[in-house]
Structures are given as structure tokens and as C-alpha cells.
Amino acid sequence: MTTQGSDVPAGGRRGRRGRAGRTLAGAVAALTVLGTLLTGCSSAPGELGVAWDTPADPKAEEANRGAWLSGDTLVHSRFDAVRGFDARTGKRNWEYVPPGRSAICHAAVDTGNSVLVLARDGDGTPGSAKNNGCVDVVAIDTEDGRELWHTALPALDSWSGRLQSFTVSAGAGLAVLLRGDDLAAVDTRTGKTRWKAALPKGCVPGTTAVAERQVAALLACGGTEHLLGDKVPSDAELFAAAFAPATGALLWSAPLGNRTTVPWDARAEFVSADPLVVAASSSGDSDSGAYFSFGATGRPNPPIDFSGSYGEIRREDRLTVAADDSRLYALTFHRLKNSRGNPTRLAAFDLATGEPVWGGTVEDDRLDGEAGYRILPHDGEITVLTSRRESPLFGDVTYLHGLRVLDAATGEQREARDFPEEDESVDTLFTHGDRLIGARYESYGYRSKPFTAYERR
């Protein structure tokens, strides 16, 4: 499986010198595999040892794109280059630099086929400044960094920023591309066209996500009120849809909202492609909204609101959630009166009912007072990356980082580990052999080490 933290929390996530952590943006997509490395029980956190470090990145900055593990290769994408490292030693094996001054706007990975698919602009102008005009798509072999194929997509219209936040997704042997009003899939290794999606009538395609059993997409459907120059009616509704990976046939489509309509330009992002889970504001960038999920046949489940008795899932934390086959796991924020701190708590929700299963209350602390900022589910467990503030009587405030492994069914803690005190926080974790590998790509202006391999002591 893949992981890219494209978007996570505040909640006290900082480096050793008190540097502010950044929300993971994104993108969305698929999560890391932790295997059985962290099973067992521990009454007090043990410290992880360092096996190797990659050198600090002198060009690390906010515009980094993500990190992945593909076979024995660790891939790190910056705005201006992609590099591959040996997961056994940390040695850098290759580097891909886009031609000219072009900048990488978005990256998606098909780990099963060792391909990274990049969307880049044409002249080096950052994608955010080009109104999502990054439609030059390139596939890179993650084993050696060579370019496999290249295609140019039609330029996105000015209205498309919300619905079409990026032009490509990848996985399961497919790269799914936005080609004007069409969704097309190509083979990730060869770039040959596999299919064009059978879109529902009256729908315009948007952001996509790929899983083994289905390709998920957001669609703007219906509406009659066209503003001058806009392709999508202003009163169009936001739909979710699933397509067959082999043929592009429509499996099902359904509106996000149940009794209320979610407008097409509401802020919406995929949490998971299978099960299909979407985080969507009620309109625009509003604080209100919910997680909408669907069964295998497209039957909608009850929504899970961004706020409730379990606390509040803040705007900056909405994509820290994670899902497995039956549950959604979230970090909820509680505003307390007459308190010096407002805690976060870990909660699990049943997707089928929308109801909390465990955690969420102020009294129910599953993380030993630490603030979580990343949730990684795998094989009946969830691993939560955490941070805690150390405030000595004299000296600088520091932030220490660790992880907690919990039973997904019960929320009971199975293991606690601390990262070395001098280490910067990691944005996600991979397992390779008997080691954990921490990846950093939300650098926020300081020169961090892209990868560190850890061992249990």
C-alpha cells in the first residue's frame, strides 16, 4: 500500500526547538503498512534507536510533495525533484529533475507496479500560482528514476479549482487522468489507454482516487443555473461515484448529502477510495460538514458530523482521519472552559451507523495525554503518531515525539514508543523488514532529513 501524508494537524506537533508543525495536505489517498513490528504490550514508552539517517535536505521547504515506500525503494518528492533511496541502507540511488524550470504540482504512486506519476507545470511557476494549470503528466520508474511515458492534458478551466483539485491519481496498475470533460485510465507502466469512464449523464468529473476494487471520483451533477463562462451550473450537486478498474464501467453514483444538498463547490476530499469516504464541508470552506461514506453497492451510510458529543474535528484536522473496512478513526478536539489546554482525543466510528464505538470523550484518553497528528490503520491495529510538550523551569520548551499502537476493535493500547529526543517529528511511517522508517516531507522551512530508519531497543 502507499502512504503520503498530504495533510495533518496542529495539536502541538513541533520540532525540538519549538518549530510549528504543518497540516498534512491532501491529498488523498492510501495509507502505510505497519505489519506486526509494533505488536506486544508495554507499560511505559521504550525509545527507538536509529539504524541510519539520510542527510538533511538543504532545499527542504513547504512545497514538498510526499514520500512513499515501493519495494526496496524509498521515494521522496520535492517541488523541484524526486529522489529514490535504498530502504536497506538509506543511500540515495537516483534523482529525477523536471526539465527546464518546471515544478512538480502533484504526485501519486502505484507501489505495486513501481511507478510514480507526476503532474508538473510547464515553466517552473508554482502550481498554486497557475490556477491548477499543472497538466503535464509524467510517469517515473521508482526503481531507477527513468521516465516511462509522458502526456499533456487539456488545461483546466478557471472554475475547476474546487472540483478538480488535481489531474491525476494512481494505483492498481492505473493512472486515472482528467482529460477535459472525460475521465480516462492509462497503464501506469506503458501509458497506453485502458478505458474512458462511463460518466452519468449531466455530470462533470472531478478529483479521483484509485483502489484495487474500484476507482472513486467526485462529480458535479445536475443544476440549471449557468453563470457566464462556467461549465458547471452554480446549483449543481456534489456526487460520489465508483467505476470498475478493468473497464471504466459505472458501478454506482450517489449524491453526497442525504436530506441536504452538498453544493458542487464545497470543499471535499477523499479519505478513502475503498470504502469510499469523503470529507465535505456543508458549503464552501465552512466549519460545518461531515464524513460521507458508502457501501459496496453505493448505499449511503449515515454521515459522521465534524462536531458532536465526541468533540470537534477542526478544519485543519479533517484529513488526519483514517478508515478501514468498517470504521473511521479521528482525532477530536475539545474546548474546555477555565482550562489552560484544550485536549485532543482519539475516537472510532462505525461507518455503517455513523455512531462512536469507543473514545472521543475528554475522560477517555487513549494516548496518555499526548496529542496525535497521524493515524495509520493496518490489520486490526491503528498506529498513532504523537507529540508532547516538555516545559522545564529553565530553558526552551521542547516537543518530543512518539507513537502509540492500539487495538482497532477496542481502542486498548498495545505498545508505546518514543522517537529519539533529538529527532524532528516524522510525517508518516513505513515498515521494511524489521525496521520502522520515518518519512518527513512537511518541512515548514527547516532542513529536515527525508528518512530515518529506526530499530526497537
From TrEMBL:
Signal peptide: none
InterPro entries assigned: PQQ_rpt_dom, Quinoprotein_ADH-like_sf, WD40/YVTN_repeat-like_dom_sf
Protein name per Swiss-Prot or TrEMBL: Pyrrolo-quinoline quinone repeat domain-containing protein
Pfam family, one: PQQ_2
PANTHER family per UniProt: CELL SURFACE PROTEIN (PTHR34512), OUTER MEMBRANE PROTEIN ASSEMBLY FACTOR BAMB (PTHR34512:SF30)
Domain Pyrrolo-quinoline quinone repeat positions: 62-201
Region (Disordered): 1-21
